[in-house]
Amino acid sequence: MKATVMRWSGAAWKALDGAPAPAAADLVLWFAAPSLAKDPELYDALRRNFPVAVIAGCSTGGEIIGNEASDQSAVAAVVSFRHARVRGMRADVAPGGSITDLGARLARTLAAPDLKGVYVLSDGVMVNGTALVDGLTSVLPREVVVTGGLAGDGADFQQTRVGLDAPLSPSAVVAVGFYGEGLRMGWGSAGGWEAFGPERQVTASEFNILLELDGKPALQLYREYLGAAAAQLPGSALLFPLVIRPEPGSAYDVVRTIVGVDEARQALVFAGDVPEGWSAQLMRGSPDNLADGAAEAARQAGQDGGDGDSLALLVSCIGRKLMMGQRVSDEVESIAEVLGDVAMLGFYSYGEICPHGFTGACTLHNQTMTVTLVREAA
Amino acid sequence: MVRPPPERHRLLERQLRKARNAAGQIDVGLLLDMVSAAYSEQDESRSLHDHAMRLMSAELSQLNAAVRSEASAEARATEERLYALLEAIGDGVIVLDGHSNVIAFNSAAEAMFDRRRADVVGLPFVELGLTSHGDIAHFIVEKMQESNTEVECQRPSGEAFTAEMTVALMTVDRQDRAVTLWRDITARKQSEGALRQARDEAYAANQAKSDFLATMSHEIRTPLNGILGTAGALATTGLNPDQSQMVRVMLESGDLLTAILSDILDLAKIEAGRLELESAPFEPHAVLGSVIELYRSSAETKGLQLVAQLGEGMRMTALGDVARIRQVLQNLLSNAVKFTAEGSVELRAWLEGEDGEGAAHQLNVEILDTGCGVPPEAQARLFTRFSQADSSTTRRFGGTGLGLALCRELVGAMGGDIGMLEREGGEEAVRAAAAADYDVVLMDIHMPVLDGLAATRQIRALGGRRASTPIIAVTAEALPEQIERARRAGIDNHVTKPIRPDRLLEALTETLCPPANAAPKRAIAS
Question: φ and ψ at B293, to 5 degrees?
């Protein structure tokens, strides 16, 4: 397999290392800052260059290419396989429709005996990521690796876009199936955040809407902790992710991040479910710890070795970028140090999809760096 | 996770790269903007974390305080419940922990030891000086075996008192506890002492009396012998009939006085513990026979039949004090002859016990007479000193009233027992009721004996008209259950002693002329 990463120059797509783009590509994945994501020219240019490729992309909260995180850019990876095949499917979110059913429908369409992995790009503000993953995994066998992420809208949480073989548009979910016996899909996910303060109980919630912690309005707690930064809600809430567990001390923990606030109900809207009765604890991060977390994710993804060209697809959380500021590239560099000479492309997301490190079951993550390492045997 | 040290300043490297324009020159303004932004990012991040840590600390200390106050409230409540329990105990309660420190001290203990709870709780028991025992832990373990232990205690004033202590070891919340209960028994000890002293004094006084009586008896006997000897000599000097009569009265009175003195002396000896019994071989048959013969003539003079029935084995050789046995038998026989106006006096004797060499035997002697008998209420007094069945008896029959009491002491000293059995004529009443028609029978039933009830049952069992003769019980006591028992035996009515004529008349009327409209009791009962 051959993988090349490219950047949008403002008028054309150019390979990062200046090399010419492969002429026959099977798959193009691309990620664009919200302002560029609205511009149909970016897709049209890709289609012109790669007429038969499956082209899937989404809007972001930041882009990753090579060993650097960037803003206000558009990036793409062009992949041609030796034997493997890919297939894309798109579903649109119907108002009031079930996201779980949508996920299951996508999975049924993609399912095949040689399906090795599914890479999912989903609308980031209209879709409950947990429900989507539930739908996908209800159909797919455990050994099919499901990774991906929710599209971003900078730190604005207004409108995200996703597209398959078409310009990006709101309210879509795209899934790309990877087929072929020679394919290896490595995955890793880690945060680097640390929990602090008392363990609280989720005393009132509705799916991904958190109403109360220990009987007090959830928004009030965040306002208190954010202090002056409360003015930047909901974006600033990303600075304090929430780790949730079925019960205090449980090894099964999932990190949740905030994608919106409901002032009227004094509630927080999360990218995934926050079940009532679960234990919740605030988390804090530092650039060094988050970069260490990213390196850990890379180690997990690359632990089964492999040879030949490979593509590392990175999905990191918008909250990490917000926390790390200019040092956000530290985490990308950490991954590059672990994986070595590998084509890297990724984006800052509203939710990462990856198997859980402890249970192995695919789930929606927040505030993590997830790494999907796609390789094809020589 | 150990991070390899960055070889260069990563961020600054990136900032320099980004500040370089297409010509490769560094835009210093842009670089400074980026560096400044990085610093302010850092400051904001730090201040956010500082703020969060302050909030978290406040939250945690609030939680901690809440947990602590909850725990201490619970501990306080438990302690209060425990104290309420301890306060309810009238005895002093002191609870010690595994190191013998006082952890509870109730109000009763405060009052008993004159110490305030606040002054003793938390201190080692041994340092409080409450008791004369230094090593209380050892003492408690030692005294665990005893239910009640007397402990000498003291109050801060130096006042000493005796307490009875009970200890129980228990484990509370995996902690060893010794619960000690204390009761001030000083007053009880004092009253016990007073009782003991009174008893000793009474015993000493009795001893003095016995000594006095023994001495006096001896002292009186000497001149009495002189008087009797002289009077005996006087009787042989050819006196006229009036003078002879006077001398005879003098001699009889003297004999009686001698007998009284002898009995008093014997009793005094017994009381003083100075009675000595001989143990010599004798043949009961010979001893009893000779005693009977003593009363042969006086019985014949009164026209009484004197009978001796001596059972088998009476001819064996026994060991004992013949003089004392004889003294008892003479006393009993003389009474029997004295108090029997007509009929007979019979002595029966037999041996009881195992056969064989050296086996212990019991000599049983029964003296039966057809005399006036002894009323039940007098029977209890019969064997006590200076009393006869009736105080009027002395005047009619003479006697010291000491005889039977002395008999009881002597028989008791010989390891035996003496008593009397009454054989009244119940049977006579039944015969009379069967032989003739009576309007009513007044049945004297000595309730504790129930003889009258047995007679009543026999009359009711006679059959025919006479079986339903009305019977009125005459009783000394009339407890409800006794009346009920009498009714079941067939008694119709009862009057209590002493008999009042109006009550007797009332009972007769009730029994013989019941109101015409009275419903049968059986009907009411059903």
Answer: -60, -30
pLDDT in tens, B226-258: 888 888 888 888 889 898 888 888 888 888 788
What distance in Å separates residue A11's CA from the closest CA in chain B?
17
Contact residues, chain A to chain B, C-beta under 8 Å: 68, 196-198, 224-227, 229, 239-240, 282, 284, 286, 288, 291-292, 295-296, 323, 325-327, 329-330, 333
Smallest Cα distance from B75 to chain A, Å: 25
Q: Name the residue type at position B90.
A: G
Q: Which residues of B touch A242 (CB under 8 A)?
A: none
pLDDT at B13: 86
β-partners of residue A48 are none
CATH of B427-525 given 3.30.2290.10, 3.30.590.10, 3.40.190.10, 3.40.50.2300: 3.40.50.2300
B123 secondary structure, DSSP code? S
Which one of B47, B56, B61 makes the best mutation probe of the A interface by having the most chain A beta carbons within 10 Å?
A: B56
Residue type, B254: G
Into which CATH architecture does domain B280-413 fall?
A: 2-Layer Sandwich (3.30)
CA distances from B296 to A164, B259, B327, B479 (A): 153, 21, 17, 48
Q: Give me the residue from A196, A229, A326 closest to B56, CB to CB.
A: A196
Cα–Cα dist B516/B140, whole Å: 79
Which amino acid is residue A45, in one-letter code?
Answer: A
Contacts of B37 in chain A (CB under 8 A): 325-326
Q: What is the distance between the alpha carbons of residues A64 and A313, in angstroms, rounded to a whole number?
A: 9
For the structural domain made of B189-271, what CATH number should be given? 1.10.287.130
- pLDDT value of residue B1: 46
pLDDT tens track for B5-64: 555 688 888 889 889 988 889 999 999 999 999 899 888 888 888 899 899 888 888 888
Check if CATH label 3.40.1390.10 holds for domain B89-184. no
Q: Where are the alpha helices (DSSP H) in B114-185?
A: 117-120, 125-128, 136-143
Contact flag B11-A330 (C-beta cutoff 8 Å): yes
- Residue in chain A nearest B1 by alpha carbon: A292
Give me the phi and psi of A339, to 5 degrees please.
-85, -20
CB nearest to A239's CB, from B1, B14, B48: B48
Residues in chain B within 8 Å Cβ distance of A225: 51-52, 55
Please choose, from the candidates B317, B387, B324, the residue with its C-alpha nearest in 3D space to the C-alpha of residue B351: B317
Cis bond leading into B480, ω under 30°? no
Q: What is the ipTM of this complex?
A: 0.77
Q: Give, for all 378 residues of chain A, the pLDDT tens digit.
A: 889 999 999 999 999 887 777 778 999 999 999 999 999 999 999 999 999 999 999 999 999 999 899 999 999 999 999 999 999 999 999 888 899 999 999 999 999 999 999 999 999 988 888 899 999 999 999 899 999 999 999 988 899 999 999 999 999 999 999 999 989 999 999 889 989 989 999 999 999 899 999 999 999 999 999 998 899 888 888 888 899 999 988 888 888 878 789 999 999 998 788 999 999 999 988 888 999 999 999 999 987 655 567 899 999 998 899 889 889 999 999 999 999 889 999 999 988 988 876 566 677 777 899 999 999 986
- Please report, for chain B, the start and end positions of each structural domain, with discontinuous segments joined by +: 1-77, 89-184, 189-271, 280-413, 427-525
The residue length of chain B stands at 526
| Residues of chain A neighbouring B13 (CB-CB closer than 8 A) | none
The whole-angstrom separation of Cα B120 and Cα A221 is 49
CA-wise closest residue to B366 among B398, B329, B339, B338: B329
A326, B14: Cβ pair inside 8 Å?
A: yes
B470-491 residue pLDDT tens: 888 877 666 777 777 778 888 8
